[in-house]
């Protein structure tokens, strides 16, 4: 046995030794693998011996290839990063955030400077914010990077045109036609070139504008430059007018008029903006000014015709329409104006002009139609309707009234509450009905104290207890009825009153109800004056009804004590489905004012309020004071080492 055990021990040790040696080999293999991976990542090539010329040449070739590969990898990373900046900049540019787009394009250019697209995109942003010098600088840089960049030439042409350098803009159009092979780009360049050539011809053939002296027709180079600058803003306004951006277009036309106020076209174009903005007073004033400057210009007549027709001045509108047909040479526009003239003649002959209500609405430029607002129930006012006193105004001279026979009778006034009941109306007034005293003594015998406590009205210690007749004395009402029948009083005295038979179980239930009613009546009497409540025994309520009954009769200090008792009670069950918006505000007010001042934990109470089944609706009806109280309580709860998850849950329930 010793030999077998020794052989087994040797075998086990051999297995352990083999396992250890294998782990060593595996560790060595892992180390070599890691070193080879690190060497491949670094790609460090050791130089050969300098005496070997062939090896040195190969080493130099490998080094140059390695450097080119590293440069290509770096360029790819930079390009990818710059493209991300460019994409975000494009989104900002589409949204009209040109300053943010400029910053993003600048970051793209700083990351990778060899791309001309970044410069052209930034040039577009500069042009949209009217920084034309920066736009030209970026266009020049883009052309230096890529001489065939069509967008750079087009942006530079637009900048030259807006700066008033039409000859340079024309040269850029010709350069685009020379380089571009796209039909769409060539057609756009041809249209722009035709427009610029027309402007150049107009500038060459147009006379100098008239200054303060009407007889002076000599050309004034200063006024020509001012006119060119005003034309730039007019062109900007025309583009915005085509995009239906009437507010910005009106600003550009106003700027053009401030530079050069003797051009009728500026006023006519601005009147179109005012027409679309429904500012008809300014539209009419601009039309009159344009006609005053150039009475042969036909467009302001048609616009003034529209305003006059809208305001019901059909005779003046008809005269403007005839003048428009007389001056205009376009047959299509003439045909449209002739139809308008027929309509105006028909309106002028008709006794009742059409669309008078529409005309009245359009007279006021800032008038808005106010629709009926249907509010949901929780947003309606809780205040009662106010009754408006309506009285007949007596005439100055009154005829003498005939006195009825039998003397003057005074009419009694009908209370308003009765009128409200007749017409099913509610104005908050109530009819004061006198209380009728009930006497239930004839329904039960004098010795039945249980029935007396059950049916008689509640009494207070200050009230004197009612005296009930003895069993020997007859009940007055019964004796009176029996005497009418013919029964004598002596027979009534000897007759015994037989009441309904009651079971013992019914008596026990009635006794229980009687005691509960007596307790509620006494509590109600005590709660009538909460300010005088000082010695009140408060306890944790056992039901929702008990909680609400006790709460409604307490003052502020006692409510604080009452809530303090329930800080560890299941408040979510006690509140129930009867929690109202007013009571929720009272609870939040007590917690904010008293609990925080006395450093009392409010976590359980706030959790119970948040777990209420009606809190999703009540949270929508919280006013600003209640929301402020919730914020203060949540801030106070953060210092009580409450978990953020539960704090966030309470916040989401109360602050919708």
Task: Name some characteristics of this structure.
single chain, Serine Threonine Protein Phosphatase 5, Tetratricopeptide repeat, 656 residues, 64% helix, mainly alpha, flat
* Level-2 CATH architecture of the domain at 223-351: Alpha Horseshoe
Number of helices: 29
Q: What is the terminal separation in angstroms?
A: 84 Å
Radius of gyration: 50 Å
CATH superfamily of the domain at 223-351: Tetratricopeptide repeat domain
What structural category do the secondary elements indicate?
mainly alpha
Largest sheet: none
Mean pLDDT: 74
Question: Could you say which overall geometry the principal axes of the C-alpha atoms support?
Answer: flat
Q: Helicity range of the residues?
A: 55-70%
Order of helical and strand elements: HHHHHHHHHHHHHHHHHHHHHHHHHHHHH
Low-pLDDT residue intervals, each spanning 5 or more residues:
207-218, 353-365, 397-401, 459-502, 524-534
């Amino acid at each position: 046995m010793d030999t077998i055990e020794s052989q087994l021990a040797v075998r086990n040790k051999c297995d352990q030794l083999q396992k250890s040696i294998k782990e060593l080999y595996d560790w060595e293999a892992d180390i070599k693998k890691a070193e080879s991976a690190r060497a491949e990542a670094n790609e460090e090539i050791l130089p050969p011996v300098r005496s070997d010329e062939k090896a040195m040449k190969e080493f130099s070739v490998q080094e140059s290839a390695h450097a080119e590969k590293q440069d290509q990898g770096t360029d790819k990373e930079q390009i990818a990063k710059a493209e991300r900046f460019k994409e975000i900049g494009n989104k900002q540019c589409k949204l009209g955030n040109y300053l943010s787009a400029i910053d993003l394009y600048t970051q793209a250019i700083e990351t990778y400077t060899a791309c001309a697209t970044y410069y052209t995109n930034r040039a577009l942003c500069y042009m949209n914010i009217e920084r034309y010098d920066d736009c030209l600088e970026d266009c020049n840089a883009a052309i230096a990077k890529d001489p065939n960049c069509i967008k750079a030439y087009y942006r530079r042409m637009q900048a030259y045109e807006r700066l008033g350098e039409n000859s340079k803009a024309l040269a850029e159009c010709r350069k685009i036609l020379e380089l571009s092979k796209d039909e769409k780009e060539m057609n756009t360049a041809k249209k722009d070139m035709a427009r610029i050539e027309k402007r150049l011809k107009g500038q060459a053939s147009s006379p100098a504008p008239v200054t303060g002296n009407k007889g002076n027709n000599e050309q004034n180079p200063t006024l020509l430059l001012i006119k060119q600058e005003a034309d730039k803003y007019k062109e900007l306004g025309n583009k915005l007018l085509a995009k239906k951006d009437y507010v910005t277009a009106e600003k550009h036309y106003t700027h053009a008029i401030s530079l050069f106020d003797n051009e009728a076209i500026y006023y006519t174009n601005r009147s179109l903006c005012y027409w679309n903005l429904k500012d008809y007073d300014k539209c009419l004033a601009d039309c009159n000014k344009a006609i005053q400057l150039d009475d042969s210009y036909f467009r302001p007549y048609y616009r003034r015709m529209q305003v006059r027709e809208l305001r019901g001045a059909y005779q003046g509108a008809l005269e403007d329409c005839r003048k428009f047909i007389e001056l205009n040479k376009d047959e299509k526009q003439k045909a449209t104006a002739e139809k308008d003239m027929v309509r105006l003649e028909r309106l002028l002959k008709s006794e009742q002009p059409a669309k008078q209500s529409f005309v009245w609405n359009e007279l006021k430029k800032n008038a808005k139609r106010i629709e009926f607002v249907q509010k949901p129930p929780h947003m309606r006012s809780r205040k009662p309707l106010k009754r408006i006193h309506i009285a007949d105004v007596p005439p100055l001279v009154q005829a003498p009234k005939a006195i009825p026979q039998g003397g003057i009778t005074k009419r009694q006034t009908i209370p308003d509450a009765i009128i409200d009941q007749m017409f099913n109306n509610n104005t908050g007034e109530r009819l004061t009905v006198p209380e009728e005293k009930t006497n239930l003594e004839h329904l039960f015998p004098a010795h039945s104290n249980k029935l007396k406590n059950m049916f008689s009205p509640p009494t207070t210690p200050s009230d004197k207890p009612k005296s009930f007749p003895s069993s020997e004395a007859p009940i007055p009402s019964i004796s009176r009825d029996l005497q009418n029948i013919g029964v004598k009083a002596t027979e009534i005295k000897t007759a015994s009153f037989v009441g309904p038979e009651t079971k013992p179980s019914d008596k026990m239930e009635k006794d229980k109800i009687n005691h509960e009613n007596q307790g509620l009546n006494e509590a109600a009497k005590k709660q009538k004056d909460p300010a005088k409540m000082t010695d009140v025994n408060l306890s944790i309520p056992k039901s929702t009804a008990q909680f609400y009954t006790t709460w409604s009769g307490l003052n502020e200090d006692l409510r604080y004590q009452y809530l303090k008792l329930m800080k560890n009670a299941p408040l979510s069950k006690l509140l129930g489905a009867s929690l109202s918006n007013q009571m929720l505000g009272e609870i939040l007010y007590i917690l904010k004012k008293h609990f925080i001042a006395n450093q009392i934990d409010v976590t359980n109470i706030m959790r119970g309020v948040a777990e209420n089944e009606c809190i999703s609706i009540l949270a929508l009806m919280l006013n600003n004071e209640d929301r402020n109280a919730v914020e203060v309580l949540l801030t106070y709860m953060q210092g009580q080492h409450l978990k953020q998850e539960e704090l966030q849950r309470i916040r989401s329930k109360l602050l919708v």
